[in-house]
Each structure stands twice: as structure tokens, then as C-alpha cells.
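--- STAGE predict ---
source: upstream dedup step, 1 unique chain passed
mode: sequence only
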Amino acid sequence: YGMGMVALIVVGKPVNLEAAEAVKQIGKAKPVFAELFAEATKAASN
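--- STAGE serialize ---
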């Protein structure tokens, strides 16, 4: 986690995406999660 080895799995409609994104991330996981959440937000808006 601290080295940025993380993943984000979205199944179905992401109804709690904002709540999940609000969780504070640390270390190298923080920028990785920022990219993953940006991609998930983009996919959810389609």
C-alpha cells in the first residue's frame, strides 16, 4: 500500500464513489488512487 501497489474495483453503478474517494490516502498510494478515481469518475459519467 505505501509503495503504491493498489487497485480500485468497480462493480455495477458506483453509488459510493464520493465516499470512497474521501478516504485519506498516504504515501505513493495517494497519486495512484487519484488516477484510479479520476478514471472511475469518468467511466461513471458515461
